Amino acid sequence: xxxxxxxxxxxxxxxKVPILAVLKQAFAEHRNILEIGxxxxxxxxxxAPGLPHLYWQPSDLELNHASILAWQxxxxxxxxxxxxAFHIGKDDWPVTNADGAFTANTTHIMQPQEVKLMMxxxxxxxxxxxxxxxxxxxxxKGEYTSDSNRVFDQHLLAxxxxxxxxxxxxxxxxxxxxxxIIHQLPANNLLLEWHxx
Length: 197
Fold this sequence. Notes:
The chain is built from six helices and seven strands.
């Protein structure tokens, strides 16, 4: 039976396998990953055991911690930490040893100024050699990647969210990061693989 605290995202269930396939390559040489915006907690309980060589640290607003902990209680992993509080724009960078960072489906929810700050913080705090994997729907050269993403973005903006960001703008905000690979994933989503060189 699902815990009353445990939130569920069908999108997480749908995308966790293809995302993990990319992370196995992107984080092959990394040891400490900060997940920004762990959401329901579904991704972290799938990724941590799939990446046993590293330590996975979820972070999110405190209101989401109960769900993350409920998923961890059902699917524990020795390399998966309890969630820590991290609110972009309010909290300082929460870890000292992260050599990689991951975020999924946060960039189009945050307001543009919050996205800019997230890109700046990741750019600043990851060490040389660090990798940032950023998943979700993005615009490419000012264009939507599909009609469904256009409709989705209209819904996001009407609902008060920041909406889909253009990759070129993200590049201007991530001054110390180089976009090495744009991975094409199902459902018209992309995974941007940034490296700090």
